[in-house]
Amino acid sequence: MKKIYFLPRPPAAATVSGKWRNRLKNTYKSSDAIRDVIDWTQQGREFYVALVDHEAGTRRVFHMNPPGSPEIATDFATRRPVVGVIDQILKLCRSGRDFDIYLLERKRGGAAGAGPGGFEGPDLAA
Questions:
Q1: pLDDT surpassing 80 at residue 100
Q2: Mean pLDDT in the chain?
Q3: Cα(87)–Cα(93) distance, rounded to whole angstroms?
Q4: Number of C-beta neighbours around residue 62 at 10 A
Q5: So where are the chain's domains?
Q6: What global pTM score does this model have?
């Protein structure tokens, strides 16, 4: 599953009401993205969150492991807690920049340690 949230900056020639309308839309979109990050984490999904800042030309990618996962963050991503991702989203919203939020679920191949609903967590049976 993939979700993309586009949070554009209002045009410079926009009216005051147009700027407020744009800010309100971006607030709802960012709140929806934060809610999805929290929900996906609670569901035990492994996924990436990418924050693309178009003005600065930067992209930050966060690898979100499910709770209790023995997997190490690999690939090009950095490992950050959910609070760090939410903090970065809020900072970008406050800055008023033109940016996008991407949520991409990672599907691992193979069935080692995974049940039908994804990673089950560590086996604690004695």
A1: yes
A2: 74
A3: 10
A4: 20
A5: 2-9+12-107
A6: 0.69
Q: Which residue has the tokens 């995974």?
A: 114
Average pLDDT over residues 72-87: 63
Residue 38: CB atoms within 10 A of its CB come to 13
- Nearest 10 degrees: CA dihedral of 51, 55, 58, 60? -20
Q: How many other β-carbons are positioned within 10 Å of the β-carbon of residue 91?
A: 11
Which of 4-18, 41-55, 68-82 is least confident?
68-82
Q: What is the pLDDT of residue 110?
A: 43
Residue 98 near residue 54, CB atoms below 8 Å: yes
Q: Please give the pLDDT value at position 102.
A: 92
Instruction: Give the strand pairing for 78-79 and 58-64.
Output: parallel
What kind and span of H or E run contains 18?
helix 16-42
CA–CA separation, 85 and 15 (whole Å): 32
User: Could you tell me if 60 and 51 are in contact, meaning their C-beta atoms sit under 8 angstroms apart?
Assistant: yes
Largest distance between two CA atoms of the chain: 67
> What amino acid is encoded at 41 in this protein?
T
Q: Please list the residues that pair with 101 across neighbouring strands.
A: 5, 51
